Amino acid sequence: MGKLQEFEIAFDQNKLVYTPGESLTGTVRVHANQAIQCKAIKVSCNGFCGITSKMNDTAWAMEEQYFNNTVSVADKGTLKQGEHTFPFKFLIPATAPTSFEGNYGRIVYRVRAFIDTPRFSKDYNTEKSFFLLRLLNLNEVPDIWGPSCSAVTQQFTYMLVKTGTVVLKAQTDMKGYTPGQVIQVTASIHNQSTKTTGHMAASLMQRVTYEMKKPIHDVKMIAEVEGGAVKAGREVEWKEQIIIPPLPQSSLVGCELIKIEYYIKVNLKSPDVLLTLPVHIGNVSLDKKRCSKKKEAPPTTEEAAGPVSTPDAPTSSMSTPSSGPTPKPAPRPAPRSRMSSHGSPSAPPAEYHPAAEGGSLMNEDFSNKRQSQLVSPNAFSYAPGLFFPQNQQPNRPAPSGPIGVTCLYPSLNGASMTAAPVNTAPPDYGLSSYPREAPPSYIESCDT
Protein backbone atom coordinates (compact mmCIF):
# COMPACT_ATOMS: atom_id res chain seq x y z
CA MET A 1 0.00 0.00 0.00
CA GLY A 2 2.96 2.35 -0.05
CA LYS A 3 2.63 4.50 3.01
CA LEU A 4 0.22 2.02 4.63
CA GLN A 5 1.43 -1.37 5.77
CA GLU A 6 -1.97 -2.48 7.09
CA PHE A 7 -5.50 -1.13 6.58
CA GLU A 8 -8.29 -3.54 7.48
CA ILE A 9 -11.66 -3.90 9.20
CA ALA A 10 -12.30 -6.36 12.03
CA PHE A 11 -15.65 -7.24 13.59
CA ASP A 12 -15.86 -7.93 17.29
CA GLN A 13 -15.51 -11.65 18.09
CA ASN A 14 -14.93 -12.23 14.35
CA LYS A 15 -18.68 -12.36 13.88
CA LEU A 16 -19.92 -12.43 10.29
CA VAL A 17 -23.64 -13.30 10.54
CA TYR A 18 -26.08 -10.78 12.02
CA THR A 19 -29.83 -10.40 12.33
CA PRO A 20 -32.01 -7.35 11.60
CA GLY A 21 -32.15 -4.96 14.55
CA GLU A 22 -28.77 -6.08 15.89
CA SER A 23 -25.78 -3.82 16.56
CA LEU A 24 -22.60 -4.31 14.54
CA THR A 25 -19.37 -3.29 16.29
CA GLY A 26 -15.74 -3.50 15.23
CA THR A 27 -12.51 -1.61 14.67
CA VAL A 28 -10.49 -0.18 11.81
CA ARG A 29 -6.78 -0.93 12.16
CA VAL A 30 -4.21 1.26 10.38
CA HIS A 31 -0.49 0.63 10.34
CA ALA A 32 1.34 3.53 8.64
CA ASN A 33 4.96 3.31 7.52
CA GLN A 34 5.21 7.09 7.54
CA ALA A 35 3.05 10.07 8.48
CA ILE A 36 0.04 10.67 6.25
CA GLN A 37 -1.85 13.91 5.84
CA CYS A 38 -5.61 13.22 5.84
CA LYS A 39 -8.78 15.24 5.85
CA ALA A 40 -10.82 12.51 7.60
CA ILE A 41 -11.10 8.80 8.23
CA LYS A 42 -14.65 7.59 7.70
CA VAL A 43 -16.43 4.26 8.14
CA SER A 44 -19.73 3.44 6.44
CA CYS A 45 -22.17 0.51 6.65
CA ASN A 46 -24.65 -0.06 3.86
CA GLY A 47 -26.95 -2.70 2.39
CA PHE A 48 -28.50 -2.83 -1.08
CA CYS A 49 -29.90 -5.12 -3.76
CA GLY A 50 -28.83 -5.01 -7.40
CA ILE A 51 -30.11 -6.99 -10.41
CA THR A 52 -28.98 -7.18 -14.00
CA SER A 53 -30.02 -8.81 -17.25
CA LYS A 54 -26.58 -10.40 -17.81
CA MET A 55 -25.36 -13.34 -15.85
CA ASN A 56 -22.71 -12.56 -13.20
CA ASP A 57 -22.63 -8.88 -14.14
CA THR A 58 -22.12 -6.13 -11.55
CA ALA A 59 -23.34 -3.27 -13.70
CA TRP A 60 -26.74 -3.18 -12.05
CA ALA A 61 -29.73 -2.40 -14.21
CA MET A 62 -31.89 -1.79 -11.09
CA GLU A 63 -30.92 -1.15 -7.49
CA GLU A 64 -32.69 -1.03 -4.15
CA GLN A 65 -30.97 0.44 -1.10
CA TYR A 66 -31.92 -0.55 2.46
CA PHE A 67 -29.60 1.63 4.55
CA ASN A 68 -26.35 3.61 4.29
CA ASN A 69 -24.80 4.99 7.49
CA THR A 70 -21.45 6.79 7.73
CA VAL A 71 -19.44 7.88 10.78
CA SER A 72 -16.16 9.82 11.04
CA VAL A 73 -13.63 8.16 13.32
CA ALA A 74 -10.81 10.72 12.79
CA ASP A 75 -10.82 14.42 11.90
CA LYS A 76 -8.47 16.43 9.69
CA GLY A 77 -4.84 16.15 10.66
CA THR A 78 -1.76 14.01 10.37
CA LEU A 79 -1.85 10.28 10.82
CA LYS A 80 1.45 9.53 12.54
CA GLN A 81 3.65 6.61 11.77
CA GLY A 82 2.75 3.41 13.60
CA GLU A 83 -0.40 1.45 14.45
CA HIS A 84 -3.78 3.09 15.02
CA THR A 85 -7.15 1.60 15.98
CA PHE A 86 -10.52 3.30 15.42
CA PRO A 87 -13.68 1.66 16.85
CA PHE A 88 -17.12 1.93 15.21
CA LYS A 89 -20.67 0.81 15.85
CA PHE A 90 -23.75 0.58 13.61
CA LEU A 91 -27.35 -0.45 14.13
CA ILE A 92 -28.82 -2.71 11.43
CA PRO A 93 -32.43 -1.79 10.54
CA ALA A 94 -35.09 -4.32 11.47
CA THR A 95 -36.60 -4.18 7.96
CA ALA A 96 -33.49 -5.32 6.09
CA PRO A 97 -33.95 -8.57 4.07
CA THR A 98 -31.77 -11.66 4.17
CA SER A 99 -28.50 -11.74 2.22
CA PHE A 100 -28.70 -13.44 -1.16
CA GLU A 101 -26.43 -14.05 -4.14
CA GLY A 102 -27.74 -15.28 -7.48
CA ASN A 103 -26.81 -15.38 -11.14
CA TYR A 104 -28.66 -12.16 -12.01
CA GLY A 105 -28.62 -10.24 -8.74
CA ARG A 106 -27.62 -10.16 -5.11
CA ILE A 107 -28.37 -8.60 -1.74
CA VAL A 108 -25.12 -7.30 -0.26
CA TYR A 109 -24.17 -5.91 3.18
CA ARG A 110 -20.75 -4.46 3.83
CA VAL A 111 -18.66 -2.12 5.97
CA ARG A 112 -16.30 0.24 4.15
CA ALA A 113 -13.47 2.40 5.55
CA PHE A 114 -11.56 5.07 3.64
CA ILE A 115 -8.91 7.70 4.32
CA ASP A 116 -9.68 11.01 2.64
CA THR A 117 -6.40 12.68 1.71
CA PRO A 118 -5.72 16.20 0.34
CA ARG A 119 -5.83 17.00 -3.33
CA PHE A 120 -3.45 15.18 -5.66
CA SER A 121 -2.83 12.55 -3.00
CA LYS A 122 -3.84 8.90 -3.09
CA ASP A 123 -6.97 7.87 -1.21
CA TYR A 124 -7.02 4.60 0.70
CA ASN A 125 -10.10 2.41 1.18
CA THR A 126 -11.02 -1.10 2.24
CA GLU A 127 -14.22 -3.04 2.83
CA LYS A 128 -15.50 -6.18 4.49
CA SER A 129 -18.78 -7.94 3.85
CA PHE A 130 -21.08 -9.53 6.40
CA PHE A 131 -24.20 -11.63 6.10
CA LEU A 132 -27.67 -10.81 7.34
CA LEU A 133 -30.09 -13.60 8.26
CA ARG A 134 -33.74 -12.82 8.80
CA LEU A 135 -35.26 -15.98 10.25
CA LEU A 136 -38.32 -17.34 8.46
CA ASN A 137 -40.64 -19.05 10.91
CA LEU A 138 -42.63 -21.59 8.90
CA ASN A 139 -45.38 -21.61 11.53
CA GLU A 140 -46.23 -18.02 10.52
CA VAL A 141 -46.57 -18.76 6.80
CA PRO A 142 -50.22 -18.78 5.63
CA ASP A 143 -51.70 -22.07 4.41
CA ILE A 144 -48.63 -24.05 5.51
CA TRP A 145 -50.36 -26.95 7.25
CA GLY A 146 -51.14 -30.27 5.68
CA PRO A 147 -49.62 -32.06 2.70
CA SER A 148 -49.03 -30.59 -0.75
CA CYS A 149 -51.07 -32.59 -3.26
CA SER A 150 -51.65 -32.56 -7.02
CA ALA A 151 -52.92 -34.85 -9.79
CA VAL A 152 -52.80 -34.87 -13.58
CA THR A 153 -54.10 -37.05 -16.41
CA GLN A 154 -52.19 -37.34 -19.69
CA GLN A 155 -52.93 -39.07 -22.99
CA PHE A 156 -50.42 -41.75 -23.93
CA THR A 157 -49.64 -41.37 -27.64
CA TYR A 158 -47.45 -43.78 -29.57
CA MET A 159 -46.68 -43.12 -33.24
CA LEU A 160 -49.40 -40.44 -33.34
CA VAL A 161 -51.94 -43.02 -32.12
CA LYS A 162 -53.58 -42.62 -28.70
CA THR A 163 -53.15 -45.84 -26.77
CA GLY A 164 -54.71 -44.76 -23.46
CA THR A 165 -54.19 -42.43 -20.53
CA VAL A 166 -51.83 -42.18 -17.58
CA VAL A 167 -53.05 -40.82 -14.22
CA LEU A 168 -50.36 -39.36 -11.96
CA LYS A 169 -51.03 -38.34 -8.37
CA ALA A 170 -48.38 -37.11 -5.94
CA GLN A 171 -48.06 -35.48 -2.54
CA THR A 172 -45.54 -34.48 0.10
CA ASP A 173 -45.92 -35.12 3.82
CA MET A 174 -45.66 -31.38 4.64
CA LYS A 175 -45.49 -27.98 2.96
CA GLY A 176 -42.62 -26.47 4.96
CA TYR A 177 -39.11 -27.74 5.64
CA THR A 178 -35.77 -26.56 6.95
CA PRO A 179 -32.29 -27.51 5.64
CA GLY A 180 -31.39 -31.00 6.83
CA GLN A 181 -34.97 -32.28 6.93
CA VAL A 182 -36.28 -35.01 4.64
CA ILE A 183 -39.14 -34.55 2.16
CA GLN A 184 -41.36 -37.64 1.95
CA VAL A 185 -42.67 -37.88 -1.62
CA THR A 186 -45.49 -40.32 -2.46
CA ALA A 187 -46.60 -40.82 -6.06
CA SER A 188 -49.34 -43.02 -7.55
CA ILE A 189 -49.15 -43.88 -11.25
CA HIS A 190 -52.03 -45.65 -12.99
CA ASN A 191 -51.06 -46.71 -16.50
CA GLN A 192 -54.34 -47.17 -18.38
CA SER A 193 -52.62 -47.65 -21.74
CA THR A 194 -51.12 -50.58 -23.61
CA LYS A 195 -47.54 -49.26 -23.43
CA THR A 196 -44.97 -49.20 -20.63
CA THR A 197 -44.12 -45.77 -19.28
CA GLY A 198 -40.65 -44.31 -18.90
CA HIS A 199 -38.83 -43.89 -15.61
CA MET A 200 -40.36 -41.64 -12.99
CA ALA A 201 -38.41 -38.93 -11.17
CA ALA A 202 -38.87 -36.43 -8.33
CA SER A 203 -36.78 -33.27 -8.11
CA LEU A 204 -36.40 -30.38 -5.68
CA MET A 205 -36.45 -27.24 -7.81
CA GLN A 206 -35.55 -23.61 -7.07
CA ARG A 207 -36.96 -20.73 -9.10
CA VAL A 208 -35.58 -17.23 -8.61
CA THR A 209 -37.46 -14.37 -10.28
CA TYR A 210 -35.73 -11.05 -10.89
CA GLU A 211 -38.36 -8.34 -11.19
CA MET A 212 -37.31 -6.20 -14.13
CA LYS A 213 -39.35 -4.74 -16.95
CA LYS A 214 -39.13 -8.18 -18.46
CA PRO A 215 -38.82 -10.58 -15.50
CA ILE A 216 -36.02 -13.12 -15.59
CA HIS A 217 -36.76 -16.61 -14.20
CA ASP A 218 -33.72 -18.57 -13.13
CA VAL A 219 -34.73 -22.23 -12.54
CA LYS A 220 -32.31 -24.88 -11.36
CA MET A 221 -32.50 -28.38 -9.91
CA ILE A 222 -31.27 -28.81 -6.34
CA ALA A 223 -31.69 -32.58 -5.87
CA GLU A 224 -33.27 -35.45 -7.82
CA VAL A 225 -34.31 -39.06 -7.17
CA GLU A 226 -35.39 -41.54 -9.83
CA GLY A 227 -37.69 -44.59 -9.86
CA GLY A 228 -38.68 -47.35 -12.25
CA ALA A 229 -41.21 -47.67 -15.08
CA VAL A 230 -44.86 -48.76 -14.93
CA LYS A 231 -46.08 -51.55 -17.16
CA ALA A 232 -49.26 -51.41 -19.22
CA GLY A 233 -52.47 -51.69 -17.19
CA ARG A 234 -50.64 -51.52 -13.87
CA GLU A 235 -51.04 -49.14 -10.94
CA VAL A 236 -47.96 -48.48 -8.83
CA GLU A 237 -47.37 -46.47 -5.66
CA TRP A 238 -43.87 -44.99 -5.42
CA LYS A 239 -42.33 -43.53 -2.25
CA GLU A 240 -39.05 -41.64 -2.13
CA GLN A 241 -37.12 -39.23 0.12
CA ILE A 242 -35.23 -36.02 -0.66
CA ILE A 243 -32.80 -34.51 1.84
CA ILE A 244 -32.74 -30.71 1.79
CA PRO A 245 -29.24 -29.19 1.55
CA PRO A 246 -28.38 -25.70 2.90
CA LEU A 247 -30.53 -23.30 0.85
CA PRO A 248 -31.71 -19.69 0.99
CA GLN A 249 -35.12 -19.26 2.53
CA SER A 250 -38.23 -19.03 0.39
CA SER A 251 -39.22 -15.48 1.24
CA LEU A 252 -36.94 -12.44 1.09
CA VAL A 253 -39.11 -10.17 3.23
CA GLY A 254 -38.24 -6.54 2.56
CA CYS A 255 -36.89 -7.09 -0.95
CA GLU A 256 -38.99 -6.09 -3.96
CA LEU A 257 -36.58 -7.10 -6.73
CA ILE A 258 -35.89 -10.79 -6.04
CA LYS A 259 -38.40 -13.55 -5.37
CA ILE A 260 -37.44 -17.14 -4.41
CA GLU A 261 -39.75 -20.19 -4.75
CA TYR A 262 -39.28 -23.93 -4.20
CA TYR A 263 -41.33 -26.86 -5.47
CA ILE A 264 -41.15 -30.61 -5.98
CA LYS A 265 -41.39 -31.70 -9.61
CA VAL A 266 -42.74 -35.22 -10.22
CA ASN A 267 -42.64 -36.39 -13.82
CA LEU A 268 -42.52 -39.38 -16.17
CA LYS A 269 -40.05 -39.57 -19.00
CA SER A 270 -42.62 -41.11 -21.35
CA PRO A 271 -45.29 -39.94 -21.82
CA ASP A 272 -44.47 -36.39 -20.83
CA VAL A 273 -46.46 -36.18 -17.57
CA LEU A 274 -45.49 -33.47 -15.09
CA LEU A 275 -46.88 -31.98 -11.90
CA THR A 276 -45.49 -29.63 -9.27
CA LEU A 277 -45.90 -29.53 -5.48
CA PRO A 278 -45.09 -26.14 -3.91
CA VAL A 279 -43.05 -26.23 -0.69
CA HIS A 280 -41.44 -23.63 1.58
CA ILE A 281 -37.87 -23.59 2.89
CA GLY A 282 -37.41 -21.73 6.17
CA ASN A 283 -35.27 -21.49 9.27
CA VAL A 284 -37.74 -22.45 12.04
CA SER A 285 -39.34 -25.85 11.46
CA LEU A 286 -43.04 -26.57 11.73
CA ASP A 287 -44.54 -27.48 15.07
CA LYS A 288 -46.29 -30.76 14.30
CA LYS A 289 -48.45 -30.49 17.42
CA ARG A 290 -50.30 -27.53 15.98
CA CYS A 291 -53.29 -28.26 13.81
CA SER A 292 -53.99 -26.28 10.57
CA LYS A 293 -57.75 -26.88 10.68
CA LYS A 294 -59.84 -24.71 12.95
CA LYS A 295 -62.00 -26.62 15.35
CA GLU A 296 -65.66 -26.07 15.02
CA ALA A 297 -67.14 -23.86 17.67
CA PRO A 298 -69.02 -25.82 20.39
CA PRO A 299 -72.81 -25.46 20.46
CA THR A 300 -74.25 -22.72 22.59
CA THR A 301 -75.91 -23.41 25.91
CA GLU A 302 -79.40 -23.00 24.48
CA GLU A 303 -78.72 -25.34 21.56
CA ALA A 304 -77.11 -27.98 23.77
CA ALA A 305 -79.92 -27.87 26.33
CA GLY A 306 -82.68 -28.20 23.74
CA PRO A 307 -86.34 -27.39 24.38
CA VAL A 308 -87.21 -27.24 28.06
CA SER A 309 -90.62 -28.49 29.17
CA THR A 310 -92.28 -26.70 32.07
CA PRO A 311 -94.98 -28.66 33.93
CA ASP A 312 -96.55 -25.50 35.29
CA ALA A 313 -97.03 -23.96 31.88
CA PRO A 314 -100.47 -23.91 30.23
CA THR A 315 -101.55 -27.21 28.75
CA SER A 316 -100.23 -26.67 25.25
CA SER A 317 -100.14 -30.43 24.65
CA MET A 318 -103.92 -30.62 25.21
CA SER A 319 -105.43 -28.88 22.24
CA THR A 320 -108.90 -27.42 22.66
CA PRO A 321 -111.45 -29.50 20.74
CA SER A 322 -113.52 -27.69 18.19
CA SER A 323 -117.10 -26.99 19.06
CA GLY A 324 -119.62 -28.65 16.80
CA PRO A 325 -121.58 -31.90 16.80
CA THR A 326 -119.91 -34.97 15.38
CA PRO A 327 -121.83 -38.25 15.25
CA LYS A 328 -120.36 -40.92 17.54
CA PRO A 329 -116.78 -39.79 17.79
CA ALA A 330 -114.17 -42.37 18.73
CA PRO A 331 -112.68 -42.17 22.22
CA ARG A 332 -109.50 -40.15 22.27
CA PRO A 333 -106.47 -41.34 24.27
CA ALA A 334 -105.39 -39.16 27.11
CA PRO A 335 -102.40 -36.95 26.34
CA ARG A 336 -99.12 -37.87 27.92
CA SER A 337 -97.57 -35.47 30.34
CA ARG A 338 -94.25 -33.93 29.34
CA MET A 339 -93.24 -33.16 32.91
CA SER A 340 -89.78 -33.96 34.20
CA SER A 341 -89.09 -37.09 36.24
CA HIS A 342 -89.18 -35.22 39.53
CA GLY A 343 -92.71 -33.86 38.93
CA SER A 344 -96.06 -35.47 39.65
CA PRO A 345 -97.00 -38.41 37.41
CA SER A 346 -99.82 -38.05 34.91
CA ALA A 347 -103.44 -38.99 35.59
CA PRO A 348 -105.15 -42.07 34.07
CA PRO A 349 -106.99 -41.66 30.74
CA ALA A 350 -109.98 -39.36 31.09
CA GLU A 351 -113.25 -41.03 30.22
CA TYR A 352 -115.23 -39.59 27.37
CA HIS A 353 -118.97 -39.33 27.99
CA PRO A 354 -120.80 -38.91 24.73
CA ALA A 355 -124.26 -37.40 24.84
CA ALA A 356 -127.36 -38.91 23.30
CA GLU A 357 -127.94 -38.85 19.56
CA GLY A 358 -126.46 -35.64 18.22
CA GLY A 359 -124.77 -34.76 21.48
CA SER A 360 -121.96 -32.17 21.69
CA LEU A 361 -118.30 -32.49 22.67
CA MET A 362 -116.86 -31.52 25.97
CA ASN A 363 -116.80 -27.93 27.10
CA GLU A 364 -113.92 -25.72 26.09
CA ASP A 365 -113.40 -24.86 29.73
CA PHE A 366 -111.06 -27.71 30.63
CA SER A 367 -110.01 -26.67 34.15
CA ASN A 368 -110.99 -30.00 35.72
CA LYS A 369 -108.97 -31.95 33.19
CA ARG A 370 -105.95 -29.77 33.76
CA GLN A 371 -106.30 -30.47 37.44
CA SER A 372 -106.43 -34.23 36.88
CA GLN A 373 -103.08 -34.14 35.01
CA LEU A 374 -101.34 -33.42 38.31
CA VAL A 375 -102.78 -36.44 40.15
CA SER A 376 -101.20 -39.89 39.97
CA PRO A 377 -103.28 -43.10 39.57
CA ASN A 378 -102.42 -44.21 43.09
CA ALA A 379 -103.53 -40.89 44.53
CA PHE A 380 -107.26 -41.55 44.05
CA SER A 381 -107.53 -43.58 47.26
CA TYR A 382 -105.59 -40.91 49.12
CA ALA A 383 -107.27 -37.82 47.73
CA PRO A 384 -108.33 -35.23 50.34
CA GLY A 385 -111.96 -35.74 51.34
CA LEU A 386 -112.18 -39.11 49.60
CA PHE A 387 -113.00 -42.06 51.86
CA PHE A 388 -113.25 -45.70 50.72
CA PRO A 389 -114.24 -48.09 53.52
CA GLN A 390 -112.22 -51.27 53.32
CA ASN A 391 -115.12 -53.51 54.50
CA GLN A 392 -117.81 -51.90 52.37
CA GLN A 393 -120.15 -54.40 50.71
CA PRO A 394 -121.45 -53.86 47.17
CA ASN A 395 -125.06 -53.47 48.29
CA ARG A 396 -124.29 -51.55 51.41
CA PRO A 397 -125.36 -47.88 51.32
CA ALA A 398 -122.49 -45.41 51.05
CA PRO A 399 -121.76 -43.14 53.99
CA SER A 400 -123.42 -39.83 53.94
CA GLY A 401 -121.56 -36.60 53.52
CA PRO A 402 -119.71 -34.90 50.66
CA ILE A 403 -116.98 -37.03 49.17
CA GLY A 404 -115.68 -34.78 46.42
CA VAL A 405 -115.57 -37.26 43.57
CA THR A 406 -117.09 -35.03 40.91
CA CYS A 407 -114.10 -32.71 40.95
CA LEU A 408 -112.03 -35.44 39.24
CA TYR A 409 -114.29 -35.74 36.16
CA PRO A 410 -114.93 -33.23 33.41
CA SER A 411 -118.28 -31.51 33.27
CA LEU A 412 -120.64 -32.12 30.33
CA ASN A 413 -122.16 -29.38 28.23
CA GLY A 414 -125.67 -30.03 26.97
CA ALA A 415 -125.61 -33.75 27.82
CA SER A 416 -128.94 -35.55 28.43
CA MET A 417 -127.49 -38.20 30.72
CA THR A 418 -128.20 -37.96 34.42
CA ALA A 419 -125.30 -37.03 36.64
CA ALA A 420 -124.33 -39.42 39.41
CA PRO A 421 -125.23 -38.42 42.96
CA VAL A 422 -122.60 -36.54 44.79
CA ASN A 423 -122.59 -38.95 47.72
CA THR A 424 -122.04 -42.08 45.57
CA ALA A 425 -118.59 -43.64 45.69
CA PRO A 426 -117.29 -46.16 43.11
CA PRO A 427 -117.60 -49.81 44.23
CA ASP A 428 -114.56 -51.62 45.49
CA TYR A 429 -114.11 -54.52 43.12
CA GLY A 430 -111.15 -55.84 44.99
CA LEU A 431 -113.23 -57.19 47.93
CA SER A 432 -113.48 -60.96 48.34
CA SER A 433 -117.27 -60.78 48.97
CA TYR A 434 -117.99 -59.54 45.45
CA PRO A 435 -119.61 -62.36 43.35
CA ARG A 436 -117.11 -63.86 41.00
CA GLU A 437 -119.50 -66.29 39.14
CA ALA A 438 -121.34 -65.25 35.99
CA PRO A 439 -125.11 -64.54 36.34
CA PRO A 440 -127.59 -67.26 35.10
CA SER A 441 -128.67 -67.22 31.48
CA TYR A 442 -132.17 -66.50 30.22
CA ILE A 443 -133.10 -70.24 29.72
CA GLU A 444 -131.84 -71.15 33.16
CA SER A 445 -133.90 -68.38 34.67
CA CYS A 446 -137.06 -69.69 32.89
CA ASP A 447 -136.47 -73.26 34.08
CA THR A 448 -136.17 -72.20 37.63
Automatic annotation (TrEMBL):
Entries under SMART domains matching the protein: Arrestin_C (SM01017)
Compositional bias (Low complexity): 309-323
Skewed-composition ranges (Basic and acidic residues): 287-297
BP GO annotations: nervous system development; protein transport
GO CC annotation, single: cytoplasm
Record field: compositional bias (Pro residues): 324-334
Location of the region described as Disordered in the Swiss-Prot/TrEMBL record: 287-404, 428-448
Arrestin C-terminal-like domain segment(s): 162-286
Stretches with biased composition (Polar residues): 369-379
Entry's family note: Belongs to the arrestin family.
PANTHER family for the chain: ARRESTIN DOMAIN CONTAINING PROTEIN, ARRESTIN DOMAIN-CONTAINING PROTEIN 1
Protein name as annotated: Arrestin domain containing 1a
